[in-house]
Amino acid sequence: MAAARGWPRKLAAVAGVLPGGGGPGPVPETAAPATAALYVHWPYCRKRCSYCSFNTYVVPAVDEAAVRACLVREAQTLLRFSQVHSVTSVFFGGGTPSLASPGTVAAVLEAVAGAAHLPAGAEVTLEANPSSTSASPLAGFRAAGVNRLSIGVQSLDDAELRMLGREHTAAEARKAVEAARGLFPGRTSIDLLFGLPGQSRDAWAQRLEATLGLCDDHISLYQLTLERGTALAAQVRAGALPAPCQDLLADMYQTARNVLVATGFRHYEVSNFARKGALSTHNLSYWRADQYIGVGPGAHGRFVLRGEGSCSREARVQILEPVAWMREVQSQGHGTRSRVVLSPLEQLEELLTLGLRTDEGITHELSLQAVFGEPGEARALQQEGWLVLDSGGLRCTWAGLAVLDSLLPDLLWQLQRVLGAARRPSRGTLAEERAGGRGVRAVSGHNG
Hints:
Layout (H helix, E strand, L loop, with lengths): L8 H7 L19 E8 L21 H19 L3 E9 L7 H14 L7 E6 L6 H10 L3 E7 L3 H7 L5 H14 L4 E7 L6 H12 L5 E7 L6 H7 L8 H17 L3 E4 L2 E3 L6 H7 L4 E4 L4 E5 L8 E6 L3 H11 L3 E6 L2 H12 L12 H5 L4 H7 L3 E4 L2 E4 L1 H5 L1 H15 L11 H6 L4 E2 L7
Parallel strand pairs: 1-2, 1-9, 2-3, 3-4, 4-5, 5-6
Antiparallel strand pairs: 6-8, 6-15, 7-8, 10-11, 11-12, 13-14
């Protein structure tokens, strides 16, 4: 690979290892067939939670047949654009996709299998709320092709659930998880929030212990953040509810990690814990900067448009509002709101930002020593015990993982400076995109 097109030499040297293409030259004829994960967004909920800032909608009625047809068509179109040979995983998120019928899930999966290879046993996850989860519809989703469930329990305390504006009670959450584990044993994940207004460390420890008696082999812990425009943020701003202090949040996070690791869970990503190998294949594709295609209102994607002869990775966002999105899909085959070609430097920034969220860190055949082994910010962070750089790659220590947000600006600055493209970050990172919404933060504790 030559340092053509005006790229700095070091940047050209490392850009060739970027996942999914993105280098300065054409994609080689002998390149391996393209693979990608697929995210499908169902934007509807029965009610909006008090902390939610996601792209969700509460409407009197949903024309599910029309939404289904548009999801199917957009998936087919974007798979054709990308010329993806194999879809590695599918994730139905929302919103509340468990409000959709199993027929909609089956139709999308059938379309995916018709447009690309969907391997037998590929991870197919459905997000579900306890209030829309019972044995009968869950069996329908399993028959449709879902083999993993992610349940938004959030809390096992009724007072906390009311404050969060959740529809379900703690008893309903327990019942839903038990039903899910019966149908998806070893593949039922639980989401839990901490750092709620007024929540003490002891109360959090009790919630966690109760969850351990209920959960399967995967749990996601998210620190609640008070997003502008949400009802919960307004209550805290008005003084009706107290805001937790940062030291307490850090203590809660460390308590949770200690408890979960002691009970056999691997802390494989900032907010995610798994045992018995039950890591989320789909989410790992984000953190490893693999290609993924986003389908549905407001969905995000990162992939190369090989069908248009491109060798450059694009960031795509679909139209947010469902009616406008459907109108565009019906007219054009897809409802893309924006598409931006990502420069090699931007791809490396995302690789760094996302890869450091995992316990494995960055293991790509990228010249990490050339970029981060020289005197500078990264070396100082290693000396302070936040980072490790060795033959296995670049990764955070446990202490560094807990403060990742505060480490990233210095690391990004060093990456840009060493590659001869120094500039201070001026826009949100992909990690912020993935962590944004629903009023939860995917990096806990002492944030920068």
